[in-house]
Amino acid sequence: MPRTLRGEAVPRKNIRIPKPMMDKVERIVEEHPELYNNRQQFIEAAIREKIEKYALLKPDE
Prior knowledge:
By secondary structure, this protein is mainly alpha-helical. It has helices spanning 19-31, 39-57. The longest helix has 19 residues, at 39-57.
């Protein structure tokens, strides 16, 4: 399993993403290596941003 900077294993789940969307991700990652080292980092950052945005809009439960 992938390891975090702390060295502990992090469980992962597989997801399916449409090929045209992944092609765009590939292009962005290749054109901007200063932002993301790989597709995985790009996807994790995009999901993290969406979760943070949702958390700001939704009141605490």
